[in-house]
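Bench notes, afternoon.
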Amino acid sequence: MDKTIYKELDSVVEGIKRLLEDYTKSKILQEFFSDQLNTFLFANLINNFFINLTKENVKEHGLPKGYIGKIKHKYKGIHNDVRQALRLPFSKKERIITIARNWTVQ
């Protein structure tokens, strides 16, 4: 995946941090909102990958049959963490951000 999107997301997060600095000097609140935003953005990116993991997309990109099942099996734990993070925004945020920044499908 192109790393440009991560740079753009980082700039959005930095913009929000600057906005928060205008309204609060609390580092705790700034870090909290930054972590929540990062979790939300990266979890949605990863979740969208799984949503778009369809037979049509696999065929369109010339990937071998059975690829969907292999990916879903291999990354089942990550997908579960992502879905949980989207339902419960305070859980597993560090893992989601780390996974997203290093995401490659093998």
